[in-house]
């Protein structure tokens, strides 16, 4: 892992932790598998911290450029799936 997680310096420590946990699950969805309910729960928390759709897209793109992982595709798959676990292979 030679990349950083996107963040905003105006976020509180707890918000930073929650956003990092969200992006960490995105990473795990590509490398292993993640519990769908955990991912959706952390995405809901991410949306509390980042309610703006444009800011969400910007952070997702920043993470994708840095890591190669598409947060959008993982969240989309989690929303559309009925499976308990999801992974991107």
From TrEMBL:
SUPFAM superfamilies (alphabetical): BH2638-like
Superkingdom of the source species: Bacteria
Pfam families for this protein: UPF0223 (PF05256)
InterPro entries: BH2638-like_sf (IPR023324), UPF0223 (IPR007920)
HAMAP family recorded: UPF0223 (MF_01041)
Similarity field: Belongs to the UPF0223 family.
Protein name as catalogued: UPF0223 protein ACFO3P_17490
């Amino acid at each position: 892992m030679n990349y950083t997680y996107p963040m905003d310096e105006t976020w509180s420590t707890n918000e930073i932790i929650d956003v990092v946990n969200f992006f960490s699950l995105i990473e795990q969805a590509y490398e292993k598998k993640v519990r769908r309910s955990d991912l959706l729960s952390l995405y809901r928390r991410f949306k509390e911290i980042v309610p703006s759709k444009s800011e969400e897209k910007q952070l997702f793109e920043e993470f994708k450029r840095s890591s190669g992982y598409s947060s959008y595709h993982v969240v989309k798959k989690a929303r559309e799936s009925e499976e308990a676990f999801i992974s991107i292979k």
